[in-house]
Design brief:
The complex is a heterodimer of chains A (106) and B (116).
Chain A lengths: L2 E4 L2 E3 L6 E11 L4 E6 L6 E5 L3 E2 L7 E14 L9 E6 L6 E2 L3 E4 L1
Chain B lengths: L2 E5 L3 E2 L5 E8 L9 E7 L5 E8 L4 E3 L7 E6 L4 E6 L8 E9 L1 E5 L3 E5 L1
Parallel strand pairs in B: 2-11
Antiparallel strand pairs in B: 1-3, 3-8, 4-5, 4-9, 5-6, 7-8, 9-10, 9-11
The chains are: A mainly beta (106), B mainly beta (116).
Amino acid sequence: IVLTQSPGTLSLSPGDRATLSCRASESITSSHLAWYQQKPGQAPRLLIFAASIRATGIPDRFRASGSGTDFTLTINRLEPEDFAVYYCQQYHTSLRTFGQGTTVAI
Amino acid sequence: QVQLQESGPGLVKPSEPLSLSCTVSGDSVSNVRYYWSWIRQSPGKGLEWIGNVYYSGSTNYNPSFKGRVTVSIDRSMNQFSLILKSVTAADTAVYYCARDSGDLGSWGQGTLVTVS
């Protein structure tokens, strides 16, 4: 399954809302999709699993939704620490795949 | 709280095998709830899933590695390992290990492997 993320880069300001898209080449049933945040020099951090469930400790300004082939991550009221690269990942199949990433830049 | 730590050579010569281990603490690689995955990230690029292993030893691999990769598990050492054969400069990357329940909830810090 190929995941295509858009846009490649989002240029926003603190306090703005970010809307990130992840489109799958075929339907991901059971909502087996995750979102990660990665900051420079750090390992990725799991934000969302099962398409819409926040991982432990993730603030509620991170919201995710979607099903089938179209998924969205929304970050409300961007904080300075939210500027990072975001990846989606599917686990509908035994072969995991990632999207190419969206950079949320100041 | 699970922790994962990658280890292995930071420099590998072209055509030689790359070999890394991931030591798990705070959980057991025999835990039937999880697979154990390897992921890499080439400089300035995105994340690429390499493969995973289950406690039983069953594995799944990214076909793009064309049979060059082997992931194995050592339950006695609470470790799992990656071997990537016949490396080239294109295999230069930060290699991560992660606990895999479909989503990858816990990651090691990553280790940079340079092929040169």
